Amino acid sequence: MSxxxxxxxxxxxxxxxxxxxxxxxxQSGIGAISEAIADxxxxxxxxxxxxNEDVVGEAxxxxxxxxxxxxxxxxxxxxxxxxxxxxxxxxESRERLDLDWLDLYLIxxxxxxxxxxxDSWKAMIRLREKGLVxxxxxxxxxxxxxERLEHETGVVPVVNQVELHPYFSQRELRGYHAExxxxxxxxxxxxxxxxxxNEPVLAEIAERLGRSVPQVVLxxxxxxxxxxxxxxxxxxxxxxxxxxxxxxxxxxxxxAIDGLERGRIxxxxxxxxxxL
Length: 276
Hints:
Blueprint: E1 5-7, E2 13-15, E3 18-20, H1 26-39, E4 43-45, H2 53-63, E5 71-76, H3 83-97, E6 102-107, H4 117-129, E7 133-139, H5 143-153, E8 159-163, H6 171-180, E9 183-187, H7 200-209, H8 213-224, E10 227-228, H9 235-242, H10 251-258, E11 268-269, E12 274-275
Parallel strand pairs: 3-4, 4-5, 5-6, 6-7, 7-8, 8-9, 9-10
Antiparallel strand pairs: 1-2, 11-12
Helix pairs in contact: 1-2, 1-9, 2-3, 3-4, 4-5, 7-8
């Protein structure tokens, strides 16, 4: 299966949907990720804090898919902010993944109370210049934080991965991203641990289109131009999550889903328990 992709502002490309790997650990995790690659996933999203970079690396080796055909992303933890600390943390991640380079490296969250994210960003620019990372970005950053990175380094992140789902559509931030050429990635794209998937509006659209509710929500992300990173340990659900490019939502459907807006449902990243 060949998936659509987006051009990034640095000239690289990113698949239009990815596999979230949080919670995929040990042998079962290796098997799940390998199966996902076989099913067509090419963007694999992990993080230092997930504790499974070695699992992702082993799954890649077992998949038999050429490394250059995969897009592997990991993230710098908040406790490793600082220039030298970032370089050291990256090497730990790269060794666990057992990869020569990474496609995307993100600052997992800004950690504003420590106020070293600009130093970390400078280190990530160095990693990109050395060819160890092809693209660099951030996660959970606000527009003023993004502006500060550009002002102090001259380099704009190519990606900002944020909480995004129909209850919290991030309209203003997405608009800022569009103006600056930053690609939006969506964590918790299905509104995990909320009532989102039980919404009657979504059920009606799904029934009419002959699709599942999660597929409708993921298609909404696609039509926004964001990159959703759904995760599941169930093979059937992972395959269904990937099958969102063969149908479209009408403008009325998109508007109805937009109408579900409630606001943020997480006060912290649910995968790391770090305050935003």
